[in-house]
Model the fold of this input.
Amino acid sequence: MKTETADLVSSDVETPFLANSVQAAPQQHARKKPLTLLPLIALIFFEVSGGPFGTEDAVAAGGPLLVLAGLLIFPLLWSVPEALITAELATAFPENSGYVAWVTAAFGPFWGFQEGFWSWLSGVTDNSIYPVMFADNLRIFVPALNQGWPRMAFLVTVSLLLTYLNYRGLNVVGQTAMTTTLFIITPFVLLCILAAPHVEPTNWLQVDWGSVKWGTYLNILFWNLNYWDSVSCLAGEVDNPSRTFPRALLWAVLLVVASYFLPTLAALGVSVDSADWQLGYYGKVAQQVAGNWLAWWVVLAAAASQIGQFQAEMSSDSYQLQGMAERGFLPKCLARRSKHGTPTVGILLSSLGVVCLGFFSFVDIVEMLNAVYCLAELLEFAAFVRLRMVAPALPRPYR
Done:
């Protein structure tokens, strides 16, 4: 496959980087790939969303109307184009370096390394959010997690335990993601049904333009609907990627948009005071419409969501380092796999970054990672456009 691809692009005199990139791509060994359609959908769901958790600060910053409009418009302007680009280039470059391979093919190894560094840094920063969100969602029942050494000990312990689960392999992570997705979606289906009799539709139209915190609103909304490209760093682990990737991304887009919009619509119809909206507020709405049993389920779903998102992001970050090492960007030790087939050193490095960043607040972390992520994403979009222009012969199973 590598030789055929190199032959097809060799006539493109403007694409020496592409020919070199194809030759540098790691050989695809004959081994069973652990990721099929359903586990891949679940992992994409957690890479991007994991449920409506995290939208609370956007409501507090922008109000009901802006949040509901943003959750419908932003996917069309950003999420769908990013998913389509990922489907095309992940199937053209089915290897674990993901977007590093795309940028290297378009602009050369210097920019390929920059893409890898920026993406890994933003990914690790993003992953440090999930233990923080886990602690914040549990505060409703465990106030000691609000601050001090109990919170610090909790964050470190959770990070280390989840790192070990990731070390056990993508079979474990993928199956866990499927089960966790069902566990998260079910209480919000019930919340939407039970909240319906209490909904006041005029709540959805409220907005105070003078008090909108545009920076926080846009940052939170952007964070909630990005990272579609992260799954490309698992392309080397996907069974039949040319068929599986596009289908998985399509279903994941529909699942993510529905899991954000419908619960937020229901919750805002019941409780509209933006000042009350902070991390963990969906549990309070569930308590209001159904009692403690649903509130506990939502809190446990939040915990499960943070676990699932941590696992998905940790997988992408560590396999990205492994793919970069296979291409010669990083020391060979990062390419070695454990007995479970996982990149041990990449997992350890990513976990260390998560622990170091986990003591910042949710909003502070989001603002840090969005700045770095935008740099990486602009480079990916530029690579997509350049490869379309100068390498039309590049095999693209999905276009």
In short: Confidence is low (pLDDT under 50) at residues 1-13.
